[in-house]
Structures are given as structure tokens and as C-alpha cells.
């Protein structure tokens, strides 16, 4: 009798677990350094999560994307829906390419949505509600939505855009460092911080060292040097930060005007906001100078969960 009751209870729990997974959605967010994933139930609660290799759509072959997605499949059960948001996945051609790979790996999946990674960041911050997000990490981007109409400013890649991003802050900081060195033949506070970071003794030695690290992600990783120099009184570093904040605030204003958003809620996303509280406060202050905004907040929803929420937002109500 006890065994029978135990088995009935076990079967009930097993059926409940199977029901959850039958309704589960998988969120995938891919970037240039890693891919994160989250398996969520139909209320958006995380069941399981993990990470895999890089999956920037512009820098990944089909074979590489297959490898990354297969490694995720090995850690997940069958799913009802997939939301995949990959860096560089802007065009319908790229989105179709990624969708076909996902269909091969998860043939049982009923709904697959493929977007660029800023859309998962938006979903994590606002869901389907109107608002604006500001992304500032290695790159930067401002994205807004109202009534399913989308507008963006910035985010056109690091060589000619991405104002206020880690990459641009470092590049402009170094420009200032070498301008000062030309003028004084001495390292500024920021210049000395770069030297301490590199273990080198002179700014001329720093040039080849930096050129070997010209990958934008590695380059942007020196952004904390800019903020440290500013706190130590380096006026050039402070000016670099000010210019970045001004440009981001200007882009927010542009997107808000295009969408005719009144007092929009603004979510801040990315490593610069997460690791540099002063950057958050400076941007808040600059936004207030330009427009009336609603709640300006640091979004802490993981991108992969945002990608799962994208899939849930498109999932039909049963």
C-alpha cells in the first residue's frame, strides 16, 4: 500500500514536471564573447540556465552556431518556444539563417523567434510596454518602442558610432593621454593608470602593447581606467565621461521625440552601468536637463531571460 501510494505520488510529480517542460520556453542571448541561455516556464520563471561559446551573428559561421546551439540542446529538454537574440542579427537574411539552424536542432519546437540582442534587453526591462533602454557596455545603443513601433539611435558599430560605450571611452581617453604627452612629455594621471595596468614604463612602449589588443572587447575592458582617473582628479578623463553621457542623453531625447513618448520609463543595461554607479547618476542628471522622464532604473533581468520573455510575448494564449 505504501509503495503504491509512493509510486502514484512519483508519477504525479513526474507528470507535473513533464507538463512544465512541455510549456517551457528557451531564451538564448548571444554576443561576441559568450552565449547565455535560460529555460523558463510559461510565467517566465527560470528552470535552468547556463552559458556557451560566442555567437555574434556577423562573426560566426553556420558550423560554429550549430556547435553552440547543440551544446545548449544537450543541457535542455524539449521546449515549446525559443527566443534567440544574437548580436549582429539585424537583417531578415541573418535571422532566417539562425532560425533554420534552430529548427534543425529543436525540430519539436512550435515557435521560434529570432531578433537582434537589443530586443531581448528591451523585453527584460519593459516587456511589451512602451519605454526606452540605453545599452552601454563594450558598445552602446538606445532603443525605444511604442505600440510595436521601434526607433533607435546609435549602435552603428564601434568604428563610427557607439558613443558613451566602453570602447569609445577608452579610445577618446587614449587620444587625450597622447595629446597631453605631446604637450608636456609627461604622462597624465590617466596615462599613468594605463601604464600601471599594462606593467610598462613609458607611453611610447604602450602603443605596440595596445595595438596587440585592438579587439574591441579587450580594448573596452580598460574603461574602468577612465573612471578611476576621473575620481583622482584627471580633468581630461572627466571630460571624456561627460561627452559620453551627453551623447547618450541626446540619443535618448531623439528616440523619445520620434516615438512621442511623454515621461518615458528608461532602463539602463550593460556593464558600464552595472559597474560604475557614477555613470548612472551622471546620465540621470543629463536626462533631466533635456526632457521630462519617468523612472530611470538599472535593469537587472538577464538577457537570456529577456529572450525567453520575447518568445512568451509571441506565444499564443491557449
Detailed description of the structure:
The structure is a single chain. The protein is globular and about 65 Å long. With 318 residues, it is α/β, with parallel strands linked by helices. The protein is built from 13 helices and ten strands. Helices cover 52% and strands 18% of the residues. The strands form two sheets. It has a five-stranded mixed sheet. A five-stranded mixed sheet has the order 8-7-6-9-10, with helices on both faces. It folds into two domains: 2-128 and 302-314, Nucleotidyltransferase, domain 5 (2-Layer Sandwich), CATH 3.30.420; 166-264, Nucleotidyltransferase, domain 5 (2-Layer Sandwich). A hairpin with a 5-residue loop joins strand 2 (35-40) and strand 3 (46-52). It has helices spanning 2-22, 62-73, 92-105, 117-126, 166-184, 189-198, 203-211, 216-220, 223-231, 235-259, 271-275, 277-290, 303-314; strands at 25-30, 35-40, 46-52, 81-86, 111-116, 131-136, 140-146, 149-153, 266-269, 296-298. The model is unreliable at 6-20 (pLDDT under 50). Helix 2 (62-73) packs across helix 3 and helix 9 crosses helix 10 (235-259).
